[in-house]
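I would love for you to help me understand the pair of lines that follows before we discuss the fold together.
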Amino acid sequence: MQSGIFETRHVRTEGLEDAKPLRRSKYQESDMGTIYRQVKADLDSGRNVLFTGIGCQIAGLYAFLNKRPASLITCDMVCHSIPSLRMFKEYIHALEKEKRGKVVSIVYRDKSLGWKKNQIAIYFEDGRVIKEWSGSHAYHSSYTAGLISRPSCKECRYQTLPRISDITLADFWHYQGKLHAENAEHGISLVVCSTEVGKKFFNLTRSLLDTEQVPIEMAVKSCTHLTKPAPSQPHRNKFFAASSIFGFMTAYRFYEKSKRIMNLLRRCKGKIRI
C-alpha cells in the first residue's frame, strides 16, 4: 500500500475492506519491512496466505521460508523494472517548484477517460488536480524508457515462463477476443496460472468473472515482459547526472528533444543528397 508520497510498503491485511488501499498501480519499489516474518507466522499457525508482489519479491519469500508450503498462494504482477526512489524524489521536488504547491497524492493510472486512455493524476495540498496523458508525463515516460530503472532489472531471472508464482496478473492490452467489445473501456486483465495451485485457486473465482482461455503465445505477444526483461538504457547514467545538476525536468526535456532530433535524422537518412 502507499502510505505517503514517498513510501510504498507491503502490509498484512484481512478482509476486502482492509485490502482496498492496496489497489492501484504504484511505480515505486515497496518496502518489505517484516512482511516475510508475518507470512511465516501465519503459515506456522495453520492459516492460508495469499502473497502478492513482483517476481523478485516472491523469490525472496521462497528463500526466506526455504520451501513452498501448500497453504501459501503467490501472485506476481508483470514488472517493467524497479524505478529509482531518488529520481522520484527529484521529480516531485522539481514539480512542486514548477507548480508552486505541495504534492500529496499521485494516481498513476487514472481511468476516468477509460482504460486505454491512461492519465496520471497529481493531487496538490491546495486542492488542485493536474491530469496528464502518461505518454507525455515526465516521470512515467522516463520510467518506461528505462532512464530511471535499476540496472540489475535488465538481467531479471523472473521474466520467464513458467513464472515463479502460482498466478501472474497483467494488462491484456492487445486482446481482441470475445470479451473485448463490452470490456474495452473498463480494462481487460491477463491471468496466467503457472502451477496447479494457481489453477485451482483461480477456478474458485471463475464463476464470478467473464473469462476466455487463450493460447499463451497470444499473452506473450501482448505482454513482452512475461518472457523477457526490459532492455538496458544507454543514456541512463547521463540522465542521472543531468538531473542532479540541472534538475529532473530539465534533464527530461533535454532527453526528449535529443530523441526527437535523432528520430528526425533517422527518417531523413538516405533522403538528403549533397
Summary: The two ends are 59 Å apart (CA to CA).
